[in-house]
Structures are given as C-alpha cells and as structure tokens.
Amino acid sequence: MATIVSIHSFRGGTGKSNVTANLATVIAGGGKRVGIVDTDIQSPGIHVIFGLGEQQITRSLNDYLWGRCPIADAAYQIALPEVAGTIYLVPSSIKTGEITRVLREGYDVGLLNDGFQSLIEKLRLDYLFIDTHPGLNEETLLSIAISDVLVLILRPDQQDFQGTAVTVEVARKLEVPKLLLVLNKAMKSLDFAALREQVNLAYRAPVAALFPFSEEMAELGSRGLFCLRFPEHPFTKEMRSLAKQVVD
What we know:
Blueprint: E1 3-8, H1 16-28, E2 33-38, H2 46-49, H3 61-65, E3 76-78, E4 86-90, H4 96-105, H5 110-122, E5 127-131, H6 138-145, E6 149-154, H7 158-173, E7 178-186, H8 192-203, E8 207-212, H9 215-220, H10 226-229, H11 234-247
Parallel strand pairs: 1-5, 1-6, 2-4, 2-5, 6-7, 7-8
Antiparallel strand pairs: 3-4
Helix pairs in contact: 1-11
C-alpha cells in the first residue's frame, strides 16, 4: 500500500510547494516511486519547480475533474538523472479559463479520492504527495482525512500560529496517523531551540524540521529543485532529516 502524504499550510506564502517538491525528490532518491498531485487549483505552481512549462502541459488535473481523461493520463514523468526512483507529477492548469471555471463552478471533490487511488494503482506508487490549497475547505479536509502523514508548514508569524492551531485541531479530530510540523523561513537571528520548544508546547506535536530563511533559496526563485542544486546545503540536510521522519 502506498503512503499518502499531504503537505498543507493554513496561509499562503509559506513555501509549501518548494517543501513538497524537494521532500518528494529526496524520498524518490531512495529508489521509491513517487507521485505528486497539485490540488491548489486556484493558484497552481509546483510544475514550475520541476521545469514543466505551460506549453508542455497538454493534460492536467482539471481535465480529469471535468471528465476529459483518466487521471493517469495527466501524470507527467519527471526526468531527473540524479534520482534513483521515479517521480510523476499531476499539475493543475495554469490557464485563466480553467482557473476561473473552478472559482465559478467548483468541482466534485469526491472525484479527487477516486483519482488518488487510481494513480496509486496505475503508477504502482510507493508514496503519493498532495500539494494542497492553503486554508481549510472541502478539498483540504478530504486530503487531510485520507492522509497517512500530514506535514503542516508554518512561519514564525502570529497569523500562521493561530491558523495552524485550527488545522491541528481538525487533523486530530480526523485522527491523522502522523502529524509533523515544519517551521519555514525562520530568521537566523531567532533562538531556534526556544522556537522549537514554543511550537512543540503550543501544538503538542513534533517540529520535524526547521528551515532558516535562505538567500540561496530566494535567489533560485523556484527555478529548479534546491536539494539537487545544493546537495550539501543545510536546507538539504534538514530536508533529508524530514524525509526520514516521513518514511519511518
């Protein structure tokens, strides 16, 4: 059986897609078959990190949701010679018409679960990563409910702290088997040990990783996978530690 991992944040701008892409890549580096679905249909973007251009995306998650194709037909194998395993990405459409249709009409969220299970079977996945839409809505509640692992990303920011508290409460009510917190974009001037302790106590959940704000990450600007560009960077080492906790 595949492990379903949802990567979520209560607010946007937390670096969720970059964490998803790099975490999935590190786990695929162990020889695993990994799928990623971008369910952030209103503001898709993880395809950019994997170098998948708009002109290359002939099928997307939207096509599956509108009944135009099976979901496996919208899965693109990502060629990464440095990675021992296999990565498949199901992107959401970046076309304005597709995004506005979702905003106007919505979609059958129940189809998502069917699609996830179909992908796992058709592509023989070991791990399925769900890159969610920020906040709480019907889609994110489904993703959280079916997850074996929920990775919640937050910044050292009071708005993030309050929103994450709501999400943690929901995850506990849905009895998610494993909940991991990730602190991202922490200023290097902060006391990291004290910050970890503060978050641990506030949510009664482990801080699985703490990523300081990285100028190198900012300069890369989502133009590629950071963990492959900078394999010895502290960010990449922390990402490997996070991957181990997801896998264990």
